[in-house]
Recover the amino acids of this structure.
């Protein structure tokens, strides 16, 4: 097995149930890092203390062009936090979460403190086992509709985490959203700084990389993948990308917008937890998802999206949902130990 995908095959049987809390917290990181992130930047760091796990935003991995306020970075950290919460519950512990616990350190996104043992519910089990099955699926989906009860469950899951969820299933709205996505593609790709930033995260040899996007997933054909970063950096491919994404959006059974009533870091962190809740619940029903977030990253497209759907607040994520073939392989992940900013404190070093 290639080392870059080894983290996806973490074995729950290895959880140190009889070990120190710090050992258990370190094990939880293995699930936290399987959360999604823009360009697969994996913008998080962790610090393990005697009884708590601290989650930090790794702003060295920020995307200054596409995400200048670190909105998506914070959402990604929220998704990682949610995975850690689900794993904590699965392994039978209660916990407390403090969001942004230190006003003097904005990089400290959350602190998760584990407590005594608690009961594991059937929902905990389902969501936990979905963590390692939640990959971003960029393949075309089959036309089969996603049943209304599933969409209602996704909506309830998002609301439980302090966000809202609006599913788009009518042809009229889907076509309108596809146009917005396509226009956002054209705007982004016409910007040289966007192309340069994207090219830095393109990986021509994904089997030996632990982060970033395989060239094929960036729309570079296999026979040109060796030159992927140069092609992305040099050429405005907005027309082709827009046509591809427009077609994908128009033929997706469901497009869904997840958002919040506020638009600031606490809301973004909630959006990330809600997003992962939705993605995991979807996988328990064999529903795949991928992102069309360019429609939110471009300010004018975000405004148009809000107006077109008469949304109840600030859109944070645009998803497409449906049934389809399993992806070839999950995206790479870094070794969890590489994300520790400080060795464990407490019982031992």
């Amino acid at each position: 097995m290639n080392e870059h995908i080894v983290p996806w095959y973490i074995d729950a049987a290895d959880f140190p149930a009889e070990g120190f809390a710090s050992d258990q917290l370190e094990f939880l990181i293995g699930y936290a890092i399987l959360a999604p992130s823009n360009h697969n930047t994996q913008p998080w760091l962790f610090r393990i203390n005697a009884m708590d796990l601290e989650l930090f935003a790794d702003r060295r991995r920020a995307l200054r062009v596409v995400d200048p306020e670190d909105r998506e970075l914070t959402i990604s950290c929220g998704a990682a936090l949610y995975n850690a919460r689900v794993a904590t519950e699965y392994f039978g512990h209660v916990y407390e979460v403090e969001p942004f616990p230190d006003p003097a350190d904005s990089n400290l996104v959350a602190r998760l403190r584990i407590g005594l043992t608690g009961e594991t519910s059937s929902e905990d089990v389902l969501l936990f086992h979905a963590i390692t099955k939640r990959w971003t699926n960029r393949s075309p989906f089959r036309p089969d509709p996603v049943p209304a009860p599933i969409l209602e469950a996704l909506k309830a899951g998002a609301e439980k985490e302090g966000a809202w969820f609006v599913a788009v299933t009518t042809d009229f709205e889907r076509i309108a959203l596809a146009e917005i996505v396509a226009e956002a593609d054209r705007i982004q790709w016409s910007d040289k700084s966007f192309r340069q930033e994207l090219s830095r995260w393109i990986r021509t040899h994904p089997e030996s990389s632990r982060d970033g996007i395989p060239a094929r997933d960036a729309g570079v054909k296999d026979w040109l993948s060796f030159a992927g970063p140069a092609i992305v950096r040099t050429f405005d491919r907005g027309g082709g990308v827009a046509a591809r994404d427009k077609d994908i959006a128009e033929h997706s059974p469901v497009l869904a917008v997840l958002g919040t009533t506020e638009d600031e870091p606490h809301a973004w962190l909630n959006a990330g937890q809600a997003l992962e809740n939705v993605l995991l619940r979807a996988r328990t029903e064999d529903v795949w998802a991928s992102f069309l977030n360019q429609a939110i990253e471009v300010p004018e497209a975000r405004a148009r999206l809000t107006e077109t759907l008469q949304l109840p607040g600030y859109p944070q994520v645009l998803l497409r949902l449906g049934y389809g073939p399993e992806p070839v392989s999950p995206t790479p992940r870094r070794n969890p130990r590489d994300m520790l900013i400080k060795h464990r404190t407490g019982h031992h070093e």
Observations:
- Residues 220-228, 344-349 have pLDDT under 50 and may be disordered.
